[in-house]
Amino acid sequence: MCLCCRSMMPKALDGQIVMEKTPRYFVTEETPARIYAMSRDIKLIVVVRDPITRAISDYTQIISKTPDVPSFEMLTFKNGSAGQIDALWSPLWIGLYAKHLERWLAYFPPSQIHFVHGERLVSDPAGELGRVQDFLGLQRIVTDKHFYFNKTKGFPCLKKPEGSSKPHCLGKTKGRPHPKIDPAVIQKLREFYQPHNLRFYQMAGQDFGWQ
């Protein structure tokens, strides 16, 4: 984000909040400084989920576009062997949340950063969005009555988005079945991420319960 980007955002009336959503911001090295230069008082919202689930989801997206890439198991390890985890492989590197958060805390206090629990966003969307509304200083208007669970998607959907009589669910790229991953690889990833997750819990002031 840059200073000139403000002119590209929609005009806000009194009492309105303008939001911009780009997932890559959290992990891009230069972004915290650039956003700080734009606004020191900005409120930041980050949605995080179990980094292993997130990595498999990323891989599912990759193979949907490039089906002939090596297996998840092969890409997880350096040189394709079941040895050292390749922490520089993008789907795994993004899940090193503490590493990325450290850069943000160099510019913004924890009080300006709110973490949305990705798993609870699915199981209790109203509760998670209630906490987001609190963080933004908004009245809790979005409640349980606004959602229903779509069993096919495996995600909650909005019953009636504003200006429409039809329910709204996430797009076709969400809720796709993930490939089956070797349990031994999952276990190695759990061991790899454990210290990083514990450090992230401490920095974020929240235990996300990723086993």
Written account of the structure:
Its EC number is 2.8.2.-. Disulfide bonds join 157-169. One of its GO terms (molecular function) is transferase activity. Belongs to the sulfotransferase 1 family. This protein is mainly alpha-helical and 211 residues long. The chain has one domain (41-196): Rossmann fold. Helices cover 38% and strands 9% of the residues. The protein has 8 helices and 4 strands, in the order H-E-H-H-H-H-E-H-H-E-E-H. The strands form 2 sheets. It has a two-stranded parallel ribbon. A hairpin with a 4-residue loop joins strand 3 (147-150) and strand 4.
What's the arrangement of strands in the largest beta sheet?
1-2
Q: How many structurally independent domains? A: 1
Using the coordinates above, name the CATH class: Alpha Beta
SSE arrangement, N to C: HEHHHHEHHEEH
CATH superfamily: P-loop containing nucleotide triphosphate hydrolases
Query: What oligomeric arrangement do these chains adopt?
Result: single chain
Helix and strand composition category: mainly alpha
Briefly, what is this?
This protein is mainly α.
Which features characterize this protein?
single chain, about 210 residues, Rossmann fold, two-stranded antiparallel sheet, disulfide bond, transferase
Strand and helix map with partners:
Elements: H1 31-38, E1 44-48, H2 51-65, H3 72-76, H4 90-93, H5 97-105, E2 113-117, H6 118-123, H7 125-135, E3 147-150, E4 155-158, H8 183-204
Parallel strand pairs: 1-2
Antiparallel strand pairs: 3-4
Helix pairs in contact: 5-8
